[in-house]
Amino acid sequence: MALPPSLRTSISPPELQLVASEQLVEIVPLVSMERTAFISGAYGPLRPPTKCKVPLWMASNLKLKKKCHIVPPPWLNVDFLQERLLQETTDPSFSEMPFRFAEVAKILLDVAPDDLQNPDRVRGLLKDIREARQAKSREGLSKLDHNELMLPNLCAMEINEIRPFFVRGMAVLTQLTREPPQEDGMDQG
């Protein structure tokens, strides 16, 4: 959902991807490397062909240098995504997806499409899921109630997209539902 510049008060999608790149993913290293310490933690040792968990940023870096294969997360496959798309289009509630699925999928599709089975189909299914979820978000916002908003299973990107509308909408609803100030009984005549 592209927002006009006046509403872009939230974190940008690239910033959300940066946050998501801290998630651990499995890789199959193609090179040996001793355990290495970084600010975010120590990772390794890398010993081909033994799988190892590293942050997505490290996996992306190694993949770009052709030093590993990234093992896609279990939810990033055609069967799982087709099932979720069916749920999104038939059930009024949001299906359960990983909190940062949009960001992680974008990074993996950009950096490691050769490590995914049928990346074009995966990309299409993710697009369809996002569109179905955005439609539900818009519908939920149209029914905005100043007491409560129930949109369980939203992911980080979706929360970030609706935040500006939600904050402004809640401010307007709060103003509308406030009781008018009571007059003190004196005529100002």
UniProtKB/TrEMBL annotation:
Keyword entries, A-Z: Chromosome partition, DNA replication, Nucleus
CDD domains, per database record: GINS_A_psf2, GINS_B_Psf2
Record localization: Nucleus
Domain DNA replication complex GINS protein PSF2 N-terminal: from-to ranges: 12-71
Main location (coarse class): nucleus
InterPro entries reported in the protein's UniProt record: GINS_A, GINS_bundle-like_dom_sf, GINS_Psf2, PSF2_N
GO CC entries: GINS complex
One Pfam assignment: Sld5
Coiled coil location: none
Gene Ontology terms: biological process: chromosome segregation; DNA replication; double-strand break repair via break-induced replication
Ranges where the GINS subunit domain occurs: 75-174
Similarity remark: Belongs to the GINS2/PSF2 family.
Quaternary assembly: Component of the GINS complex.
Annotated protein name in UniProt: DNA replication complex GINS protein PSF2
Species annotation: Trametes pubescens
